[in-house]
Design a protein that fits this description.
alpha/beta; six-stranded mixed β-sheet; two-stranded antiparallel ribbon; 10 strands
């Protein structure tokens, strides 16, 4: 049993109603649901939410909402792992046992069906507990600088001042799109960022955090450019 679980609570602060706000012609969450459906990976696509309007939008675009997320898992401080574990526990008690679970964020319009399929392949072939999307930093993190309290600059790592960029190790960060995992790992609360996680690299142009109005505008520009290129 392979299940996609899309966390989508209603209380977004920085971008109100972010999960269902229109994005390039569809509610934001609809893009994640669409990619999950196109991937052919999942027996069920479930949205975990505490919000009645999100329930309606999710169902209208082909996802299931078989339960409402409890209030104690719907505040600003609740992490992803407890939310996914709650959904797996519900599935086990009310439907059927789950083997593989993909946490797919509702605000990941750039996620593509082939990425989800590749993530499942990486998880199964690697033997890891998790496999999740990552992308590389555009600039060597070893040469990062900070702005001091007196409005001056200093390097975080002075030893790399004279290092050439091409000689420095490439660094990656979480792409914030999807997290495949074995149900047992989610239920046990195993950490995502560990040696038991395998990377699924994505190109930088298909990765964009959407936390502010500026992020949203940039994401729409990128998304429209990608759609235009795909139609050429």
């Amino acid at each position: 049993m392979k299940v996609a679980i899309i966390p989508a609570r209603g209380g977004s602060k920085r971008i109100p109603r972010k999960n269902i706000k229109p994005f390039c012609g569809k509610p934001m969450i609809a893009w994640s649901i669409q990619s999950a459906r196109l991937s052919g990976c999942f027996h069920r696509i479930i949205v975990s939410t505490d919000d009645a309007e999100i329930v309606e939008v999710a169902r209208a675009h082909g996802a299931e909402v078989p339960f409402m997320r409890p209030p104690e898992l719907s505040d600003d401080h609740t992490g992803t792992i407890p939310v996914i574990a709650h959904a797996i526990d519900w599935m086990t008690r009310n439907a059927s046992p789950v083997d593989f679970v993909c946490c797919l964020y509702a605000t990941a319009p750039f996620v593509q069906a082939e990425d989800l399929r590749r993530g499942l392949d990486v998880l199964q072939q690697s033997g890891a507990d998790y496999a999740f999307s990552v992308t590389s930093y555009a600039f060597p993190i070893q040469r990062a600088i900070r702005i001091t309290t007196d409005q001056r600059v200093e390097m975080l790592n002075r030893e790399y001042f004279n290092a050439r960029s091409q000689d420095l190790e490439e660094a990656f960060h979480d792409a914030g799109q999807f997290y495949w995992g074995r149900a047992a790992a989610w239920l046990a609360g195993e950490p995502l960022f560990s040696h038991d996680a395998a990377p699924v690299p994505l190109p930088r142009h298909r990765v964009q955090d959407i936390d502010t109005a500026e992020d949203w505008e940039r994401a729409e520009w990128l998304f429209k450019a990608m759609q235009s290129r795909a139609q050429d």
